[in-house]
Design a protein that fits this description.
The chain is of the alpha/beta class. It is built from eight helices and nine strands.
Length: 240
């Protein structure tokens, strides 16, 4: 896991992401790590959601997964960049100060904590109606172009987390094809709730990644922290 790579995390905040059906289990180490790293009241309050054995909203577990991913990146110290996109009715690239990504090497005290507070606010506490996934993929492809200008030889990872079907399926598929054609990026898809399994599996396979449905919050968090450390590009499936 010593290859530096940039990442784009795409998170669904459609209304169904409020469903309370993610079981909290096996996440004590992650909680302790974040608790120790971040003192702010918002983060400490946020962590109180995670009591062993209870069910929490999908979006709360998604927010925690994103925070964990960023903290792993900062811990690696490779100066990797991470962008976050949230989508429902529209798609938005979340701001890190005045930038569209978090620079994990910025070294400024509090960069991670500020990012975590923003995630709690913009992912954990937000929702919209539709599932405009295609629009989010358009933005991901735009960010990839910027990342590739900055570091042409560095690979990139895209992780899409969703619990539904794209409202804009044609656009979604055409953007997936762009990702599939780009040799410098691998795309993973995480499904919560009732996603379109067939479509998501096909999309992830085309893009050299995998489709994964975690059984509980523990599996979700372990999966994200592993991804933050390790990029392996499977051979991309041949396009149908």
């Amino acid at each position: 896991g010593l290859i530096p790579f940039n990442a784009i995390l795409i998170l669904d905040i459609s209304r169904s992401m409020m469903a309370r059906d993610v079981l909290v289990t096996n996440i004590a180490p992650a909680i302790e790590g974040i608790k120790a790293a971040m003192e702010s009241r918002e983060i400490q309050e946020f962590l109180k959601h995670f009591k062993d054995g209870i069910y929490i909203p999908r979006r709360i577990s998604a927010a925690f997964a994103a925070i964990l991913f960023l903290s792993e990146k900062v811990g690696r110290g490779f100066g990797e960049k991470v962008s976050l996109i949230r989508f429902s009715d529209e798609s938005q690239v979340l701001p890190f100060g005045d930038s569209f990504y978090m620079d994990s090497a910025s070294g400024k005290k509090g960069v991670l904590e500020e990012a975590a507070r923003m995630i709690v606010d913009r992912i954990g506490n937000a929702y919209g109606q539709a599932t405009n996934m295609g629009a989010a993929m358009v933005q991901a492809n735009q960010i990839l172009q910027e990342f590739q200008k900055m570091s042409p030889n560095q690979p990139n990872m895209v992780i899409l987390l969703t619990d539904g079907m794209p409202t804009d399926e044609e656009l979604f598929l055409s953007e997936i094809r762009k990702l599939s054609d780009n040799p410098n990026v691998v795309t993973y898809i995480i499904g919560l709730g009732n996603p379109d399994r067939e479509l998501m599996t096909r999309a992830a396979t085309l893009c050299g990644g995998e489709y994964f449905e975690p059984k509980d919050a523990g599996e979700l968090l372990v999966w994200y922290s592993k991804r933050a450390r390790d990029l392996t590009v499977k051979l991309k499936a041949h396009k149908k």
